[in-house]
């Protein structure tokens, strides 16, 4: 489902899913990591951070239920692996790590944790905000 960030989303927009203290939106069509970051910002959100195994399992399930195997999340490498808010990874679920020089962006893999890749690859992505 294509969503338009110019569409003036309301406080309880369709498509957002509440979990714990946040709300999540699975977005297609696929975009590269930088375009996904921009899209989420326009919604008043950011690419998701994953802080616990239960949150990972939930996002893994949503990605799979949408018919995809991967989705961008908000982790990237800059002097260490960090979330978009600048915090270091407190929970990690790596399946594989490639060279950070060419692969600084993190994606969720529905079968095996998360991995890093080139940011230019188009993938669906998950936006997160504090309330819906």
Could you characterize the architecture of this molecule?
This protein has helices at residues 33-42, 53-65; strands at residues 17-19, 22-31, 46-47, 70-77, 81-83, 105-109, 113-117, 123-129. By secondary structure, it is of the alpha+beta class. The chain has one domain: Mannose-Binding Protein A, Chain A (Roll), CATH 3.10.100. The strands form two sheets. A four-stranded antiparallel beta sheet has the order 1-2-8-3, with helices on both faces. Strand 1 (17-19) and strand 2 (22-31) form a beta hairpin. The longest helix is centred in the middle third of the chain and has 13 residues, at 53-65. The chain starts with 16 loop residues before the first strand and ends with a strand. Residues 1-12 have low confidence and may be disordered. Keywords: Disulfide bond. It comes from Cynoglossus semilaevis. Residues 19-128 form the C-type lectin domain.
Instruction: Tell me the name of the CATH homologous superfamily.
Output: Mannose-Binding Protein A, subunit A
User: Low-confidence runs (pLDDT<50, min 5 residues)?
Assistant: 1-12
Radius of gyration: 14 Å
Structural class comes to alpha+beta
Keywords: Disulfide bond
Protein name: C-type lectin domain-containing protein
InterPro entries: C-type_lectin-like, C-type_lectin-like/link_sf, C-type_lectin/snaclec_domain, C-type_lectin_CS, CTDL_fold
Domain C-type lectin: 19-128
What key attributes describe this structure?
single chain, 132 residues, alpha+beta, Mannose-Binding Protein A, Chain A, four-stranded antiparallel β-sheet, 2 helices, globular, disordered N terminus, disulfide bond, C-type_lectin-like
């Amino acid at each position: 489902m294509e969503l338009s960030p110019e569409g003036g989303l309301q406080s309880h927009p369709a498509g957002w899913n509440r979990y714990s203290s946040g709300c999540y939106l699975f977005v297609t069509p696929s975009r590269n990591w930088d375009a996904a970051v921009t899209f989420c910002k326009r919604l008043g959100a950011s690419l998701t951070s994953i802080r616990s195994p239960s949150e990972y399992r939930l996002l893994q399930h949503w990605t799979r239920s949408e018919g995809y195997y991967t989705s961008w999340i908000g982790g990237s490498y800059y002097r260490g692996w960090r979330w978009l808010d600048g915090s270091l990874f407190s929970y990690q679920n790596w399946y594989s790590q490639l060279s950070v020089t060419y692969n600084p962006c993190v994606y969720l893999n529905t079968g095996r944790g998360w991995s890093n890749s080139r940011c230019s690859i188009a993938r669906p992505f998950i936006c997160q905000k504090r309330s819906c």
